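Quick one - inputs below.
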Amino acid sequence: MAALLLWIPLMPLLSSLLLLLAGARLGERPVALLGVGSVALSALFSLAAILSFSASDGVAWGIETLPWFSALGLEVGFSLHFDGLSAVMVGVITGVGLLIHLYSVAYMAGDADFARFFAYLNLFVAMMLILVLAGDFLLLYLGWEGVGLCSFLLIGFWYRQPENGYAARKAFVVTRIGDVALALGLLILVQQFGMLNIQDSVDQARQLWPGSDLAGWVALLLLGGAVGKSAQLPLQTWLPDAMAGPTPVSALIHAATMVTAGVYLIARTQGIFMLAPQVLQLVALVGAMTLFLAACSALVQHDLKRILAYSTISQIGYMFFALGTGAFSAAVFHLMTHAFFKALLFLAAGQVIMSLHHEQDTRRMGGLLRPMPFSALCFAIGCAALAALPLTSGFYSKDAILLQAYAQGGAGFAWWLALAGALVTALYSLRLFVRLFLGDCRTLPEPDNRPLLCWPLGILCLLALFGALIPQPLHDVFSAAPQAHVPLPVHLLVLAMPVIGLVAGIWLLLRHRDWRQAFATGALARWWRAGWGFDVLYDWLLVRPLLWLARVNRRDLADLPVQLLVWTSRICHQGLSRLQSGRLRHYAVGIVGGAVLILAVVL
Amino acid sequence: MIGAAELRALLPLMLVALTAIGTLLLAGFRRDARLAALGYQGGLLLTLLTLPWALPEQPLEVTPLLRIDGFFGYFAALFVLVAMAVGLMMQRQVRSKTSGERVEESYVLLAICLLGALVLAGAQHFAALFVGLELISVASFALVAYPCGGRPSTDIRQRNSLEAGLKYLVLSSVASGFLLFGIGCLYLDSGSLAFAPLPPSTSLALPGLALLLVGVAFKLALVPFHFWSPDIYQGAPTPVAALVATLSKGALFAVMLRYLWFGALQELETLVPAVALLASLSMLGGNLLALRQRDIKRLLAYSSIAHLGYLLLVLLAIGHAGVAIEAGAFYVLAYSLTTLGAFALIGCVCEAGDEPDYRLEAFAGLIWRAPLLGASLMLILLSLAGIPLTVGFIGKFYIVAAGVDAGLWWLLAVLVAGSAIGLYYYLRIILIMLAPQSEPSGIGGGRWLVYGLTLLLVLLGVYPLPVLQWLPVL
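Output:
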């Protein structure tokens, strides 16, 4: 059984290597077969692993350390770990990943770099699986950096347009800031406990660190890594630009899986975060702020994919908020349902964009309900789940977050922000749907209804509606939250918030077009549209000073030591070379001189 | 007293000696290069295969001269493999040239070299040390001047190799003189030639050790005793240069490791400044000399000077750090593997035409001409530079770890500086290799040896555990 676990990440990894080496020589059909087949096998193995896991009553198991090397008392090896949290993540990655791979076969058909696309996509799935199955920090970090690399490669997949390359670089550099923090945090853990195993290290921390400042610092550094990868404040700026990649990539990497790696990281190391309540509060605050700011930005965007990107940031903000308030299982629950409905929305958006000849601006869309009823249905379900309308999967998970958060900490500032966010979410979901499907038809679509595009969408529709019914074996991973009484008015308020948002939206739509118009052209909307000005802020605070410094410093002090080194090296080289005369007697003199030197030093 | 157990332990040495005699007889009765090569390789393969059986469970002293233990086993296996690879290179040299030279005896000399190396790997006595060392040296004099791959005496290359052989002979004899003098002093001092701690506070021990150090430093080509090595590397046939670079240096380093480990630890304290000086001079000097070198063989000579400088760190760390012996043993392996690969590649690329071309420009456009060879060259150079995922990185990592444990901060700083300079000339070759091809030229045979060595170099760089598990038993 344990060997099975090994094959889950190995299948896509091998297929990726094969595609990288020989993909250019294969036709589209074998490439697609290899790319999709490997993920399908991986999904099959995952299913087997999950089934055997639940059959054994949720006992965590894994592969013992495969030794790599050992030096200076540190045993370095690889181990895999499979528990409830890994099970959920693996299920989401391989399940949603498989659907997106299928969709990509149709979406990318005819692209000159078909094989390269699937090689990267498979590599991504492999790295993501390594990340969530890792039993020790080394593999975790490998997966973490691996998904970052794949994200970079896939955002810049169409590298001939310079702006795609820019977006890829931006994503890489911004997440790198978080990665450095993560690396530091992990190094502190390894240095303190002298082992790489995640579970053991966290257990050690639980026993040794209560009351120590170190837990806080490590948690803070881990949080730094998490906000970078999950596009949370203050490192959220890369995700909207990352939409430059192909749409399936946005669905898989920048909505369903990779950006939730931060959530996974915090959930995995929750034992350390529990030791640092202030950092945990910070997590909640970061999440709440992010979810609200991003929801406001999503409300005023024009680009279809940017709306979805901001909505992703906002939804991951909910997960962080849940983590910070101690509602760990609710966070992971929302992670799963979000993966379903956001993948649905992205893939449906991809279909719309394809049908409109790569038009992404929602101002030139509208009235698509009649020509594209299937897409409209997908969007309706996706938006309903996103807005957390009752009986969709998003409803259950967001409800769980808000209620558990209330039960844990009452109604603080962060909680009210999260509640307000729910309202704004409903508003922008409605706006998205209305813009695309109602009103006048501005661009005539050529509906693209190939079965490979539609089948994955259909399955995702079902998941977005009923995904909340999938059981989550998380009770052994997280210590059960203490049951607290939530008063009925709070229940009703949480329940009603999306509905209020929806009704208010319809009311605005029907009655007060002039208000909308005034708002959309106002300064506030412009500010929100620019993502609250973070890009400009960072540009002025960081990028420009750095560029200025580099320009001023072009020929300067810092170069001097380097130049000096070059000169001395060259001079020494010439001097020494002259001694190589090729004459025996000179060489003999060298020996005698050396002997004298050594005797002089020793005696 | 030599009994059955001792004979069994001596089996590797006897088999190699038999290989030398057998090859000589084969060559005497029938002049056939292929037959001689077969005899040589067969003998060595037999030695390698019987090695695990021959090694005793417990360290065994065979006469006061030799000690057969895990340390011997590790180095013996390494040296036999090195000798086999050199033999393969030699064989290719013959196959590509048809000028009627006689190459059969070179296998005899190679086997004698290997015998000397094995004696050094097992030596625990100065007599064994000297015998082993001279076995290697005498055989190498002849090998360096060996008429290999050219018309006798008229060919410029032939004259070069004669000159190189003569230089090596003269200078090496001087160094051996120093070595003997040093050994003599130590004998006068302690009354014993065995590797053992010296009695304290005597007048002759220190000068003796210093003179010993001079002799050893010459053989290891440490700055300022390095002058011979680029000339020898350049003049000698390529396989022989590989032999001098790997087998003879590795064997001498092994015996030094054992000597310091067994005996002179406390005496080392007083030698530290001298060894540290040699190490830092070698690390800097070797790399600086290689900096703008245009001849690949001379460049490798300088690079190997620097590598031996890194290795000296291990000798200094030996008293302080537990990993020092492991580090040294592993680095010898890493260095030998990589250097062999480099020389095999030179044989493959530079000696393809009628006239060998050892300029760096011979590699221009290699990656386009022969992608696999180009990739191999890149990996070999990265391994020499100590970049991760190659065996060179693991070796250097070990040395740095040993140095940190022993607190040799200044020497580590020099090591870092030397490595940084080293990157320049290693990467420059890669740059030349990536340049558009200037003139089309062929590729010689022997590329499978290069591929094999490169593969091993990457495998051990990614997964060094099989070797590392072996090391603690030393």
